Amino acid sequence: MGGDLVDFFGIEFEAEHPLFSSEFEDLPGIYIIYTPGKCLDIGRTERLKTTLEEHQHTKSWLDNAGKKEIYVAFHLDDNAESREDKENYLREKMNPILAKV
Q1: Buried-most residue among 36, 62, 65, 66 (CB within 10 A)?
Q2: Arithmetic mean of pLDDT over the chain
Q3: Does residue 101 have a pLDDT over 50?
Q4: Domains in the chain, start-ordered, CATH in brackets?
């Protein structure tokens, strides 16, 4: 994927990938959906590209972003237990607008 590396509470992410104009791969990991100054959502996936293409919250992301660009930050992690732990940790720290349903 490639991108700038950003630290979110001790976890390094590739960041600043525009949601609708970036090419994503089906990789396992944690993703953060955000706009400048606002965390919209945090999740874990086994296949990032597929998850983003089929996500049930896409309309909510758009509604909450207003006219701001939506970005994706991604942390590669192929361990399911580790992904769950990191997702829970980041949700607690970042308090995303959209809670997991």
Answers
A1: 65
A2: 94
A3: no
A4: 4-94 (3.40.1440.10)
Long-range contacts of 5-8 (CB under 8 A, 24+ apart): 6/73, 8/32, 8/73, 8/90, 8/93, 8/94
Q: pLDDT tens digits, residue range 40-89?
A: 999 999 999 999 999 999 999 999 999 999 999 999 999 999 999 999 99
Rounded to an integer, the average pLDDT of 12-33 is 96
The three state secondary structure string of the chain is: CCCEEEEECCEEEEEEEECCCCCCCCCCEEEEEEECCEEEEEEEECCHHHHHHHCCCHHHHHHHHCCCCCEEEEEECCCHHHHHHHHHHHHHHHCCCCCCC
Residues 6+ apart with CB under 8 A from 82: none
